[in-house]
C-alpha cells in the first residue's frame, strides 16, 4: 500500500530534487504543505519536519475523473518527505491500491502508469 524510499539527503535537498524531478515526468506540483509549520501555527508544538508535495498529472487526472468522479476524493497524489531515525524518508500511497478501492477496473492501467512515474520521481529525488 505504501511506496517508501530512504536517503541521507536533508529534507530541503529532497524538496529541491522533487521540484526538478516532478515536472520532468510531466507532473505538476499543486502545492507543498509544511506540516510542521501548519500544526505549530495552530498553537500545537510539533518538532517533526514533514513536507507534503501534492502532485498531479493533468491528463491522467482527466482520464480517471471522466470515468469516476468519486476518485477526486483521493486526488491529488501526495509525496511525503520527513525525517525518521536520522534519515530522510519519501513516502506515498500506491495509486494502484487507492484506485482499487473505487471498483473501477478500467482505471487500473492509468493507476499503474501514475504509480510508475511517481516511483521514478521519488527514486530520482532520493538518489545521491
Topology:
Layout: E1 2-7, H1 11-24, E2 28-34, H2 35-41, E3 50-56, H3 58-67, E4 77-84, E5 87-93, H4 95-100, H5 108-126
Antiparallel strand pairs: 1-5, 2-3, 3-4, 4-5
Task: Walk me through what this model shows.
There is one protein chain. With 128 residues, the chain is α+β, with helices and mostly antiparallel strands. 44% of the residues lie in helices and 27% in strands. The protein has a five-stranded antiparallel beta sheet with strand order 1-5-4-3-2. Strand 4 and strand 5 form a beta hairpin. Helix 1 crosses helix 5.
| Total of DSSP H or I helical runs spanning 4+ residues | 5
What does the overall shape look like? globular
Share of β-strand residues: 25-35%
Q: Could you describe the largest sheet, including whether it forms a barrel?
A: 5 strands, antiparallel
- SSE run: EHEHEHEEHH
Number of beta-strand segments: 5
Quaternary organisation: single chain
Would you tell me the overall average pLDDT? Answer: 95
Radius of gyration: 15 Å
User: How do the strands of the widest beta sheet line up side by side?
Assistant: 1-5-4-3-2
Distance between the termini: 25 Å
Name the poorly predicted regions: none
- Helix share bin: 40-55%
What is the gist of this entry?
The chain is an alpha+beta fold and 128 residues long.
Features:
single chain, 128 residues, alpha+beta, 5-stranded antiparallel sheet
Amino acid at each position: 500500500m505504501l511506496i517508501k524510499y530512504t536517503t541521507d539527503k536533508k529534507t530541503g535537498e529532497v524538496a529541491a530534487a522533487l521540484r526538478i524531478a516532478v515536472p520532468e515526468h510531466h507532473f505538476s506540483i499543486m502545492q507543498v504543505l509544511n506540516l510542521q509549520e501548519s500544526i505549530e501555527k495552530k498553537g500545537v508544538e510539533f518538532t517533526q519536519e514533514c513536507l507534503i508535495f501534492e502532485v498531479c498529472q493533468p491528463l491522467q487526472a482527466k482520464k480517471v475523473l471522466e470515468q469516476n468522479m468519486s476518485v477526486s476524493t483521493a486526488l491529488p497524489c501526495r509525496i511525503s518527505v520527513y525525517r525518521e531515525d536520522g534519515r530522510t524518508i519519501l513516502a506515498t500511497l500506491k495509486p494502484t491500491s487507492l484506485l482499487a478501492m473505487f471498483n473501477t477496473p478500467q482505471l487500473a492501467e492509468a493507476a499503474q502508469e501514475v504509480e510508475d512515474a511517481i516511483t521514478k520521481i521519488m527514486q530520482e529525488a532520493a538518489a545521491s
